[in-house]
Structure formats: C-alpha cells, structure tokens
C-alpha cells in the first residue's frame, strides 16, 4: 500500500522518483488509470491551495472526484475517522486525500484500511506534498541540493512545513538553518539545523523560506503585533536587498502580506511563491499515480486517449 | 414518471426488478444514458454514506452531477422546495435526489414537477434505497425471503429504515419482529410484526438488523445512557455468541460503537455492515437507471464505450 | 482578455454577438475547448440559480469545474481575493466565475490577473449574465427591442438587475420606465428612464419586469410589510388582467410569492420566469465560450465528439 504520510518515511530514492515523475508531468507527460477510479478529498481544515491543487491534479489524471464536505457529513453525528474511511472504501472510493487538525491522525487508519491515504497536512505535524513541491522548486532552480543553504524562517513550532522540509533537505545534502522568534524554535529541530540571527540567515542563504504566522494556533501571550513581527523577523524591502545574487524567496502561502514578507515582494523577481503552487499540481499528480499505479494499474503517455477525449 | 418515493409504493415485481438490475450492475453490467444527463443531490441533512453512494452510482452511470450545497443556496433566502426543484429543472437538471428532514416532503412536488425525484430519506418516514440495499444484502445471503426471520432492533419509532423495511420484508414473505425499548415500539407497526424480547429476537432470527439510536431526535426524558442501552438492548459479545448459525448482523450505519453493537463486532464474520454499503451503490445505480431510462433513454452493457472512455 | 464584468462595457455589437451565440446553443450547436480546461465558481453569496446555471453551462462545454467553497477556503484565514485568484491561476484554473457582495470587487483584479473573470453579480452593482438572459428572453418574444416598453418594478436601488438591464435596453432601442416605492427610485437612473405610477406602468408595457425585494439589504425603517407591498406595488391578479395583450411577465427569481407577484401568476401563461432560467444556461455558455475561445481555442459543432463521448 503506497500511502503518503510523512516526508520522513520516504527514502532519498523515493523522493527522487516522485520529483522525477513530477518533472515529467510538468513537461507534458500523462498517466491515466486503466479503470474508472474514484478519489475523495477530506479537508477537516480550511484550505484553498492544497485542496484545489489536488483537485486539478486528480482531474488531469482522469480520476473521478467524490465531493466530501465535512460540514454535511456523518462526522457531525459522531462518526469516527476510521468508520468514515471504511465507508468511502465500501462505496468504491479508491484513494483518500486527508487534511486533519489532529497530529498523526493516520496512525489509527494505517494497516486497517485497504485504500491508500495521502496526507494533505496533519495538525502541526507533516505536510509531505508541500515538502515535495518545495523540493521540486529548489531543484528546478539549483539542479542540486548539495551545498544549498536554506533558511526556514518564522513560525517553526507550529509549522508542518518546517519539520517535513528540514528533514528531507538535510538528507538530500542541503544545509538548513532556522530563524524567526527564538522562543518559537523547537529544540527537537536542532538535529536538522541550528538557529541563526535573521539578518545573517537572509544574507547568506540560497533559499529564504518564509513560514506563515498561524494566528489561529497561538495563544495571546505568545503573539507579536504584525508591525513588530515584520520589523524584527519579516522579509523587509531592506533585507531583500541584502540577499545573495540568485537566491530565491519561498512561502507556502497563504501569505500574511506585510507580516512575514513585504507585500511588494510577493511577486518580485526572486519570488517563487506562485511557481511553488504551480509545481504543487505536478507533485500531487506524481504521488497520486504512485498510490494508484500499483493496485489499480494505468498507462503512461496516453496521448491518443487525450487527443480523442480531451483535445479532440 | 418513475419517482422513487417510498418502498411501500413499489410492487413486489418492481422490487424484484430493481434487485435484479442491482445484481447485474454488481456483476459488471453497465448502462449509460444516450445524452449528457444532469442530476443534482439535495441533502438537507448530514449524510456521508447515502450522499457518497449516490455520487459514485451517478458517476458509474456517466451522469453529470451538479453540486447543490444547501448552505450556499437560495433556500437561505426563503425559496421553497418546489421553486428550487423547478429552478433545477429549468436549468436542465434531469433528476434530483433529495434527503429532507420533513416527512413526505415530496407530496408538494409530485405531479407538479417534470423530473423524477429519488427520495434519499425524509424525516422519520421513508428511505427506500436503504430498504432496497438491505433487501439485496439479505437476498444475496439467503437467496430467498420466504421463511427468513428478521429482527429489527432499536429506535423503531424514529427510524426511516424500520418502516420501509418491515413493510417490504413482509410482502416478500419474510417474518419480521421488533425489539429494543418497548416504549419506542410504535403500535402502527404491529401490522408487520410483533414486539419480541431482545434475547429471543437475537437468538431466533436469521437477520439481526440493528438501528442507529438517533440522539438528535430524542427528548431528554426519553434518553437511555449508552452503557445502559448497550447492556439492555445492544448486541453484546454474549448475545452474539447465542445467534443462530449462519445468521447475519446488519446496521444502516453510522454505528454508535458500543451502544447498538459492541465495537468489536462491527467487522466480525457475521457482520454485513460494510457489504450493505457496497450494495447500496448498485441499488442506487438501478433506481437511477429506472428513473432515467424511460424518458432519457440509454444503452445497456456499453463495454466498448467503457473500454474506450474509461478503461482506455 | 475577454472578461465579462458589466453590461455597460459591452458594445451593442458584442451584446448581439453573445445573444446570437446563445440562440445557437439553444438550437443545439456546441463548442468544446481544444484542451482540458478548468474553471472555478467562487460564490461569496448564496445562489441556486446562477451557480447551478453556470455549472450546467460549463459541463455542456466539457469544462472541468473545480469546486471552491468559501466556507472551507483560505479566505477564512484572511486571504485577499487577489491572492485567491492568483492561486487558482497558478494551479491551472483557466477562468473564474465570481459572485461577491462588494461592488466592483473586480477593480482590484483586472489587469493584474491573467485569466478571464466572469462577473456573476457584485454587491448592488452589476449582474451581466442576468441582463443578457433577460435580453435573450425579450428578443425571443418580440424579435426586436425597437419600440418595446419595459417596466422595471420594485427594489431598484438594491438591484443589480435594474442597473444592468436599463442601460442595455435603452442602448438597444427599448423604452424603460421604473416603478415601485418612489423612495427606492435612484436619481442616477433617470438617464435611462423616468418613474411611472405602478398601474400605468403595468397597463402600458410590453414587458413587466419585477424585481426581488432584497430583505437582507434593507434597514428596518425602510421596510414595507409583505401584504402592504403586494397591494401597493405587486403584480396582483387584478393588475395582471389589465396588462396589454401579448405582454409578458419577467422576474429574476428567487420569487417572494405574494409579495412582488401573486403566487398564482408565477407560472401563468404570460410568465417567462422559468424560461428566463432556461435561457440563462445558453447565455452563460456563450460568455464562457467568448472568454475561453481566444486564448484556449476550441471547436464548434463537435457533433462527432458528442456522439462518441456523450451520446454514445
């Protein structure tokens, strides 16, 4: 069963295989399952990017997407996640994409359900497709991870992205440093990189990866005002000017404009923010193919099919 | 106009025809309408199973499903159900599937709208596709209904399933008994079967059909605690041991684990709970075909189409 | 970029071109884009008619509709409309349909996004597809706009429809008058037509176009009771009897039965209310084709495709 749960469980060669498939899809390759294949997207937390990105990826693979709205589901009657997934499996759903607010929600599912689970984010834990699209974007830019310095800046403690990325980047040969409010630095992350002063981090890194302040996960005492945060830890116009030549800016979005980053920099020349979103579709096509190819079967480069069916 | 409103209005031969079609779909037969055909699913109450099941059935028949979210519809502006259905009809929707909290909501529609209505549950009234999938599951197990004893246990008064099933089962030749809290027994149901003590019912029936406690429909004074209910009327581990050989357990789900049934029995060997869900898709394909075939037209066993379109 | 933002920005010849395409679609013509094409419908206000109508139109053109539910989107995390649209564009969405409660919401988007925007209603401002379907319905009835008198009656001040329609009708050669509560008449509309007494308006017009009372946009002091409004300004049974021969009744719906119009007249012989909805689908097909044809490309009258793909 080819679940996709965390970046950590993926070997280097599996990551490289997924990125290679994603590049292929971006270059125009295609894949379609042999049979009508159903997938359901279960988003227990708000999302535009990840949900729409999966949805587009699914349609590009010719999958049938079964709508699942938490607010109108039996989850409201107290149904457990396990029973919901078993239900979807019983009615013929072949794979599920899940975002959930509980860390490691998938632990209660794995080994007990018979369809692949693609984790679209769990609590403060993991967000493997975000990591993979970040990796794809860095690889596209620098071709290698060896010797690339990546600064992950901001709300590290509450970030699914920070954990997933730091781990994978280090294994792939990159150097990772963390910055932002020091009290948000999590000692458990020290194995992947040390804390660095904000100005040093921005001035010496090839990739400045900003994280979203997750207001909804902070207690009041823990909060910085937007202006104060921007001045102390944000990517200001001044700090951007001191970045290395050819270094790039990344952000998983949604962006809090003028907090993590000056609004005027969101679409500046160094910014890869919207390119990350574009790459997300191809990465998701790759992990969906990986999950379905094994037990559903499919065909690559179905250009004739597409000519007949879509491009006419 | 081939509506599907209640099980009672279906003749024995109509039921048998639907079950036969459903078995055919399960065996791999197919049907597609001649023309692009639109269907809308209107769920005014939460549902996972029924909604997803209809959705999968619709896609398997190649129908176009138009999303309808009550929470973002003009129903919020006070639009009547009749005007909503007439609107959908006007924009080209060819059939509607409706779940509504009002008993017999369809009375104000029938004869005035021009598209078939498939009832996916009304108030405490009817739920014909649930009945049909229950019948299909029993028939698959025992091949006949003659002489089969079915115990319907639990929240009989608030159950759409109890009414629909008891009526159909009796007409098909089965024996029905009811059990659970005696004060929940509805005298109007006596025509289809008598009330039986919980232990007798479980020990002597071929089918133990448990109903969901509908907490949301009970007043406080009416409530049993979960533990008390389970001990007095639930399918405990002990009671299951005393069931007849080859007898089966059914439940329309969602299950309240450890209330109606011990959580460990939900997927035991006797349980057909997830098989019921699987059969639901085929039953819904059958009633959708029945509703659309007449005025839209369609073709059976379109294997070539499917080979080309879906299976490549 | 062929946005569709307001009726006013459309030239007479553009309007005629759209109506001609819409008539073609109604007569059975078809169009499909060359490549798999994605569209998202963003409805920030409740809607049944407009949303379902766009959805059906999109499916008839073979478009892939990406679900976007405001209530489960990052809009809840404070994402701006601009960032949402740029996100959708980045993941591959080719056009967006937007209904929003802010007047001229599109001003902050036009010139900055790279995909066409189809306005499905903004605040109290514009609703161009509603105007176009009204025009199509009038044209179908009278063949010309020259010399046709149209009375627009009711909640003129809060009506997107009133503004859009009055402007286009006058340019096309029709005569427009306004009626209803005089305090709701907006002086800015005088350029398109004068205020007329309710009985005169109804008795002398070829088209009696009633508007919906938008309770949700009125302050308390501003309110009329339903009965009072109906008696003073509604289309009563008595007033309908005095209408000109061959004159017709229109209403954008949802109808407040027995307020703007006696419930018994909603489907009377003069009423074109449900025909308007039907025409809405064809008008939306026309504007979607217009938006996509230029940069996506497509083919007309793909009957073979349809025979193979849809009609088998």
UniProtKB/TrEMBL annotation, chains A, B, C:
Pathway: Pyrimidine metabolism; UMP biosynthesis via de novo pathway; (S)-dihydroorotate from bicarbonate: step 2/3. The keyword Transferase applies. GO terms for molecular function: aspartate carbamoyltransferase activity. Residues 146-289 form the Aspartate/ornithine carbamoyltransferase Asp/Orn-binding domain. Residues 2-140 form the Aspartate/ornithine carbamoyltransferase carbamoyl-P binding domain. SUPFAM superfamilies: Aspartate/ornithine carbamoyltransferase (SSF53671). L-aspartate binds at residues 77, 160, 212. Keywords: Pyrimidine biosynthesis, Transferase. Catalyzes the condensation of carbamoyl phosphate and aspartate to form carbamoyl aspartate and inorganic phosphate, the committed step in the de novo pyrimidine nucleotide biosynthesis pathway. Belongs to the aspartate/ornithine carbamoyltransferase superfamily. ATCase family. This is Aspartate carbamoyltransferase. The gene is pyrB.
């Amino acid at each position: 069963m080819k679940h996709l749960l965390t970046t950590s469980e993926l070997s280097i060669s599996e990551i490289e295989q997924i990125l290679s498939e994603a590049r292929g899809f971006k270059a125009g390759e295609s894949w379609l399952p042999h049979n009508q294949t159903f997938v359901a997207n279960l988003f227990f937390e708000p999302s535009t990017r990840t949900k729409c990105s999966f949805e587009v990826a699914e349609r590009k693979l010719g999958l049938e997407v079964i709508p699942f709205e938490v607010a109108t589901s039996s989850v409201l009657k107290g149904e457990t996640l396990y029973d919901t997934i078993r239900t979807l499996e019983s009615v013929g759903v072949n794979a599920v994409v899940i975002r959930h607010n509980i860390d490691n929600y998938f632990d209660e599912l794995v080994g007990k359900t018979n369809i692949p689970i693609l984790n679209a984010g769990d609590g403060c834990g993991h967000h493997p497709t975000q990591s993979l699209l970040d990796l794809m974007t860095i690889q596209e830019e620098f071709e290698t991870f060896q010797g690339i310095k990546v600064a992950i800046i901001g709300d590290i403690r509450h970030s699914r992205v920070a954990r997933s990325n730091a781990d994978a980047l280090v294994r792939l040969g990159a150097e990772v440093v963390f910055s932002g409010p020091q009290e948000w630095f999590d000692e458990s992350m020290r194995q992947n990189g040390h804390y660095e002063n904000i100005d040093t981090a921005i001035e010496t890194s090839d990739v400045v990866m900003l994280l979203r302040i997750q207001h909804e996960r902070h207690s009041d005492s823990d909060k910085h005002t937007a202006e104060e945060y921007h001045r102390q830890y944000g990517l200001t116009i001044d700090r951007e000017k001191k970045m290395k030549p050819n270094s790039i800016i990344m952000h998983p979005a949604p962006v809090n404009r003028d907090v993590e980053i000056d609004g005027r920099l969101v679409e500046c020349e160094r910014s890869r923010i919207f390119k990350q979103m574009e790459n997300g579709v191809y990465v998701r096509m790759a992990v969906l193919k990986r999950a379905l190819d094994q037990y559903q079967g499919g065909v690559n480069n179905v250009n004739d099919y597409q000519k007949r069916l879509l491009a006419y």
